[in-house]
Amino acid sequence: MTALTADQIARVKATAPVFAEHGATITKHFYKRMFNAHPELKNLFNQTHQQSGSQPETLARAVYAYAANIDNLGALGGAVSHIANKHASLNIRPEHYPIVGRHLLGAVVDVLGDAVDQPTLDAWAVAYEQLANIMIGTEAKLYEAAPWSGFRPFKVVRKHVESDEITSFYLAPADGAPAGGFEPGQYVSVTRYVEKLGVDQPRQYSLSDAPHGRWLRISVKREDGRGEVEPGHVSNLMHDGVEEGAIVHVSAPMGEFKLDRKKTTPVVLLSGGVGITPMASMLATLLAERSERKVTFVHACRNRSVHAFGEWMRRSASGHPNVKLAVFYEEVGAADRVGVDYDFEGRVELERIAADAILPDADYYVCGPVAFMRAQRDALVARGVDSARIHTEIFGSGMLD
């Protein structure tokens, strides 16, 4: 690998403001250019995020961060691990990187024209090679540790409605072999052919039960769409077109958002809406392992009709003295029962449950809509919780910061 010179580092760093200003234009053109040349790659990318512009914007922010920190890559923190896990879940391989690099640099030239000179383009070519090698190396370790390679066929052995919005799918390997292990909190990618788009589409779903090797469970929220947002292509296909006996193709479990099972300190699970799915896996694992760790499970949703796993959560709390439960309903229905279905009305307010939720040395796992996660993180930090003990999971192309 060619090493960046001091002049090349300076050139890449100097172009960071360009990506702050023109990054989204460049990345939108990049995807269009790459898909025109390699339409088969549409199968690897969420085309809904392409159409909304959220994926190009996310890539533009990532390129900006890389350029701004080219002389101090350690400042990127967990971004490399987060992206590598997403890539491994989508089966991104080393041969894809030269294609991306060629079209990304081509998009820079197409958009900026004479505003970027050849030495700067040469510097970016070396910088991209450096980044590609970092990602390839990180992803190679994930593939090596994974229980299987690529997308594996699984049979739907059970389909169970959890709420008006969420349905669980129990997936057993089609060949009868063990389902393989995972860490609670991780996700898999499921791919389905979307006729409207004419391509396979992958979607990530958290595993929602404890690892035991017999089957994997994912719990999928139906995305009906609202306003200008289209209904979810894959979620609707799963709800309406995938029945017991169907075969779906599933990637190996990935994700760095996972319960640290070696610790003995308290655990606080904070979830909103479908963000409950990885938390259900974490709690189920702690119960299966008969852990003595103190657990507080805080969940927020609109009302009982959309509250997945509600009865199981209540049974778990009543049957285990080390488990505390606090459920917030934002829109309490006439039939919703306080102390049975929910505990508090309104949005999550940690001040109301501080004795159970703000615990010394606890690890906090937060999953839900971005606004929900941001609010919980900020509330925890304001109460003196070390940010290193706050773990979040974000799907799609959103960002917490």
UniProtKB/TrEMBL annotation:
Swiss-Prot/TrEMBL cofactor(s): heme b; FAD
Looking at the record, the residues that make up the Globin domain are 3-140
- What are the protein's GO molecular function terms? FAD binding; heme binding; metal ion binding; nitric oxide dioxygenase NAD(P)H activity; oxygen binding; oxygen carrier activity
What InterPro entries does its record include? FAD-bd_FR_type, Flavoprot_Pyr_Nucl_cyt_Rdtase, FNR_nucleotide-bd, Globin, Globin-like_sf, Globin/Proto, OxRdtase_FAD/NAD-bd, Riboflavin_synthase-like_b-brl
Q: Which GO terms describe its biological process?
A: cellular response to nitrosative stress; nitric oxide catabolic process; response to toxic substance
Q: Which SUPFAM superfamilies match?
A: Ferredoxin reductase-like, C-terminal NADP-linked domain (SSF52343), Globin-like (SSF46458), Riboflavin synthase domain-like (SSF63380)
Q: What Enzyme Commission number(s) apply to this enzyme?
A: 1.14.12.17
Give a single Pfam family match.
NAD_binding_1
Q: Where is the FAD-binding FR-type domain?
A: 149-260
Keywords attached to this entry:
Detoxification, FAD, Flavoprotein, Heme, Iron, Metal-binding, NAD, NADP, Oxidoreductase, Oxygen transport, Transport
Q: Which reaction does it catalyse?
A: 2 nitric oxide + NADH + 2 O2 = 2 nitrate + NAD(+) + H(+); 2 nitric oxide + NADPH + 2 O2 = 2 nitrate + NADP(+) + H(+)
> Into which EC class is this enzyme placed?
oxidoreductase
Keyword NADP attached: yes
Q: Which family does it belong to?
A: In the C-terminal section; belongs to the flavoprotein pyridine nucleotide cytochrome reductase family. Belongs to the globin family. Two-domain flavohemoproteins subfamily.
The task this protein performs is described as: Is involved in NO detoxification in an aerobic process, termed nitric oxide dioxygenase (NOD) reaction that utilizes O(2) and NAD(P)H to convert NO to nitrate, which protects the bacterium from various noxious nitrogen compounds. Therefore, plays a central role in the inducible response to nitrosative stress.
Q: What is this protein called?
A: Flavohemoprotein
Taxonomic source organism? Paraburkholderia pallida
Q: Which gene encodes it?
A: hmpA
